[in-house]
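Hey,
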Amino acid sequence: SKKAGKVKQPEQAISFGPQVKPGELVFGVAHIYSSKNDTFIHVTDLTGRETIVRVTGGMKVKTDRDEPSAYAALLACQDVAARCKELGITALHIKIRAMGGTRQKTFGAGGQASLRALARAGMRIGRIEDVTPIPTDTTRRRGGRRGRRL
């Protein structure tokens, strides 16, 4: 029969990511966006065009109020680090961002925690940059002439 004559090819190990020498650092860029409602950890290649992995705080916790928490950011970063290692990315440049514009220019609780969690998970950290959009001249801020009255 036809099937009896077939010789099985030895299966080759499939490796994703760039081909590098052992011990060499392969960099990605971690775009961390931390607002008061959620934290996004989005890892791309160096150009920023190819997404490698994207996890948010909301994907890790069940209640809405826990999405921006430091704990949710920590869980998200552990997932991100595991996936990066699978794909052979060993080091990350960090671009951290708050809401910016006419809104708040300081990042939420998840921002600081996610940076620490990435380092603790064994990712090497390269450059850290704050990329919060700061307006040079802007539209009028919300709240009206007399401000937000509490």
